[in-house]
């Protein structure tokens, strides 16, 4: 390694670190929170002063108070910063000196980074094009237009400016270290600090210098977080992903991951609720602040462009939750937390609307094929029974029966959608999903009982013989009507549950399902009952149970949103499409619903084995 490279490495690695960096994760988190609060004030306080919005000013006062509390929480290590934080709070409380507050917050952030030894990453993806412009304006005179430092003035400097084309030098640096260098400068060298650049501009500049020696990206980079990219050297990235991916990793930065950020905010709220339930209201306040700064705030601009009213509701809900925690009001904190979870889930559903449409469409298609398959078998069995009894003149009655059942199912679906469009939509969503679960379980039991097709045909034939023997066309109509009505009504009910996520997905899935059912009818008419009916019915039962588990989770979660059920947070992943949420109120019933069919299957197999054993012994 050459002398200039060694010196730059030493200078960049030698940024002062406090002993506090070696302490526990909880304390480090407080340092990060304090920095995040001040960064927020730095950017948003001038805007609040300009707008003169009472809500915005109240929010800024709340953040300033949180900054004072976080500084006190850090104890002696941050004691020297407390007067500066209080001075900022005093001006915020009086709604004064926006430029001074912004400037002092920025300066204090830099001092806190040094004192806390914080490893950071940008809150938003850096703008490499902006970084290129900043480099030409501020750095090219010493480092050269191409970053090689091959300019006359460089020869007069001791030490020489860094050569960003040097693979050995760049292989040992990170964007975070470059960010710190532009933020604080390097004392004793010609490298100055750039206090006039915003934090985002310094991150853009820091990330840009790592692209200067690399070729263009001609592919798609592997998945890597901004935090990883900010704190990884080029050598680290080559070791983990391979040399062939380095250019794309540095040149194609990941977008802000909206789903991950919103999930982080949701998990932070759940943590705050756990802290509140345990009586640790200061801990709940800290968790709420982290949820806002690390979860919602990074993706707030993207959400605002799509639904500004929703963002406003989220901000108000966060403020209400923090006030509840500050007052030590447990019930109020639970209510505010429930509102936040509901709003964040709404934001996540909106952000994943395309995925919801596709998944809902496929589920609808599968359900309609399954229900259509069952209805086709029933109608075909009825018609076959008429032919066998030489009563084909009554075929129209059978057709009238099953068509009437389909019409009733369609009416049930339309009425259900009308009810769910009312003011109590959340209640209706929850109730509809739970009713759908009951219907699905009934269908699963019905399928299990009808897996023997010859037995099923015998039952139908017996009913039809009775109706024909009495000369009752009404009875024959009712047999066909009731046989298909269960399928029709069941489909209408649990499509209501799927329509909670994507009505358009249900519509497209239904259209595809009608086409598939028509093809299925032709297929069955050609093959008759040579199809593996038991296997098909068993597979259908598995789909029914899986759909029931999903809708059970969604139904219980919807009732939690309106306060009908309590929140009992527990560590678990959130998969909204599958109806999985980190809450015991939904997860425990879902686990039981999954276990019951498995237990029934094991008992049935054991009983069958016992009967076979007794038969062989006899």
TrEMBL record:
Cross-referenced PANTHER family: IRON TRANSPORTER FTH1, PLASMA MEMBRANE IRON PERMEASE
Signal sequence, start to end: 1-21
Keywords: Heme, Iron, Membrane, Metal-binding, Signal, Transmembrane, Transmembrane helix
Protein name: C-type cytochrome
Entry similarity comment: Belongs to the oxidase-dependent Fe transporter (OFeT) (TC 9.A.10.1) family.
Keyword Transmembrane helix belongs to the record: yes
Topology relative to the membrane: Multi-pass membrane protein
Organism: Pyxidicoccus fallax
GO molecular function ontology, one term from the record: heme binding
Transmembrane segments: 361-385, 397-415, 427-447, 467-485, 505-524, 536-559, 579-603
Domain Cytochrome c intervals: 126-213
The keyword Metal-binding appears for this protein: yes
Superkingdom of origin organism: Bacteria
Entry-linked Gene3D superfamilies: Cytochrome c-like domain
Localization terms from the record: Membrane
GO CC annotation, single: high-affinity iron permease complex
Main location (coarse class): membrane
């Amino acid at each position: 390694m050459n002398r200039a490279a060694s010196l730059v490495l030493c200078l960049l690695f030698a940024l002062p670190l406090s002993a506090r960096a070696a302490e526990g994760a909880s304390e480090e988190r407080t340092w990060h929170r304090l920095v995040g609060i001040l960064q927020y004030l730095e950017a948003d306080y001038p805007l609040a002063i300009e707008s003169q919005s009472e809500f915005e000013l109240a929010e800024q006062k709340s953040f300033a108070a949180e900054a004072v509390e976080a500084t006190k929480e850090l104890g002696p290590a941050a004691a020297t910063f407390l007067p500066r934080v209080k001075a900022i709070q005093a001006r915020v409380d009086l709604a004064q000196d926006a430029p001074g507050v912004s400037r002092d917050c920025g300066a204090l952030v830099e001092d806190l980074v040094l004192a806390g030894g914080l490893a950071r990453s940008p809150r938003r993806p850096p703008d490499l094009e902006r970084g290129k412009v900043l480099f030409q304006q501020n750095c090219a005179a010493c480092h050269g237009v191409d970053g090689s430092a091959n300019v006359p003035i460089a020869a007069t400097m001791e030490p020489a400016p860094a050569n960003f084309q040097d693979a050995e030098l760049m292989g040992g640096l990170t964007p975070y270290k470059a960010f710190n260098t532009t933020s604080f400068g390097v004392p004793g060298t010609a490298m100055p600090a750039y206090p006039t650049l915003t934090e985002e501009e310094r991150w853009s500049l820091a990330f840009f210098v790592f692209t200067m020696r690399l070729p263009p990206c001609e592919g798609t980079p592997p998945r890597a977080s901004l935090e990883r990219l900010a704190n990884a050297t080029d050598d680290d990235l080559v070791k983990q992903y391979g040399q062939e991916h380095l250019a794309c990793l540095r040149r194609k930065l990941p977008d802000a991951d909206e789903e991950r950020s919103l999930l982080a905010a949701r998990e932070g709220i759940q943590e705050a609720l756990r802290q509140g339930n345990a009586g640790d209201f200061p801990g709940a306040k800290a968790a709420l602040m982290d949820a806002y700064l690390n979860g919602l705030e990074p993706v707030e601009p993207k959400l605002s462009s799509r639904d500004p009213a929703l963002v406003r509701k989220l901000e108000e809900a966060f403020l209400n939750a923090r006030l509840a925690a500050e007052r030590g009001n447990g019930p109020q904190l639970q209510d505010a937390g429930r509102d936040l979870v509901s709003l964040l889930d709404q934001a996540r559903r909106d952000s994943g609307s395309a995925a919801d449409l596709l998944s809902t469409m496929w589920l609808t298609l599968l359900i309609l094929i399954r229900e259509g398959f069952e209805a086709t078998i029933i109608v075909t069995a009825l018609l076959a029974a008429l032919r066998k009894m030489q009563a084909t003149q009554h075929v129209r009655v059978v057709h009238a029966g099953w068509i009437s059942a389909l019409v009733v199912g369609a009416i049930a679906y339309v009425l259900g959608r009308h009810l769910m469009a009312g003011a109590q939509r959340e209640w209706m969503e929850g109730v509809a999903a739970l009713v759908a679960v009951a219907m699905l379980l009934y269908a699963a039991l019905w399928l299990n009982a009808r897996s023997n097709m010859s037995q099923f045909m015998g039952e139908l034939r017996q009913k039809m013989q009775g109706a024909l023997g009495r000369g009752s066309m009404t009875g024959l109509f009712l047999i066909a009507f009731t046989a298909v009505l269960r399928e029709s009504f069941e489909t209408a009910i649990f499509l209501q549950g799927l329509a909670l996520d994507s009505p358009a997905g249900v519509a497209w899935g239904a259209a595809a399902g009608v086409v598939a059912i028509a093809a299925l009818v032709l297929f069955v008419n050609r093959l008759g009952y040579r199809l593996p009916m038991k296997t098909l019915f068993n597979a259908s039962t598995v789909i029914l149970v899986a759909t029931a588990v999903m809708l059970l989770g969604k139904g219980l979660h919807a009732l939690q949103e309106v306060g009908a059920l309590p929140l009992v947070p527990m560590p678990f992943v959130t998969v909204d499409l599958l109806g999985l949420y980190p809450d015991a109120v939904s997860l425990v019933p879902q686990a039981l619903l999954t276990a019951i069919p498995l237990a029934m299957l094991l008992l049935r197999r054991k009983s069958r084995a016992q009967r076979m054993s007794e038969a062989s012994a006899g």
